[in-house]
Design a protein that fits this description.
Helices cover 79% and strands 0% of the residues. The chain is mostly helical and 128 residues long. The longest helix has 29 residues, at 96-124. 35% of the residues are buried.
Length: 128
């Protein structure tokens, strides 16, 4: 948080979540479309989109605890997306290499999001 943030797009947590969403769209959903798993395609697209949407909406609240709440929602959507990835792997729609790559992308995103949530809580609790 050292550099001045101009928009939510400057947040490292948002950047990682966006990369994760793009990864889902480019690497995971095409495999599900081929398998004709349209319900799972819709679910994973919606949950991955919800991550970035919640981070950006929370940022627009301009209140530490409101932002933290939306980031908590984003974290829930991130975990939901991981569950959809698990389903895709368990049902053999994606291979082990893609599954591991997806878990790495997830790990990068959750780590930064957790750090941002911690920063928000710490900032909200600073004496004024």
């Amino acid at each position: 948080m050292k550099d001045e943030l101009k928009t939510f797009e400057d947040l490292e947590a948002y950047k990682a979540a966006r990369e994760f969403r793009i990864f889902i769209g480019k690497e995971i959903t095409p495999k599900l479309v081929v398998a004709k798993e349209y319900d799972l395609v819709n679910q994973i697209k919606m949950s991955s989109r919800s991550v970035t949407a919640n981070i950006s909406e929370g940022y627009g609240r301009y209140h530490y605890l409101d932002t933290a709440k939306f980031c908590s929602n984003a974290r829930g959507s991130l975990c939901e997306t991981l569950d959809h990835i698990n389903v895709a792997y368990d049902d053999k729609f994606i291979d082990t290499d893609l599954y591991q790559l997806a878990r790495t992308e997830y790990g990068n995103s959750i780590k930064l999001l957790n750090g941002y949530i911690k920063y928000l809580h710490n900032s909200a609790n600073k004496p004024k």
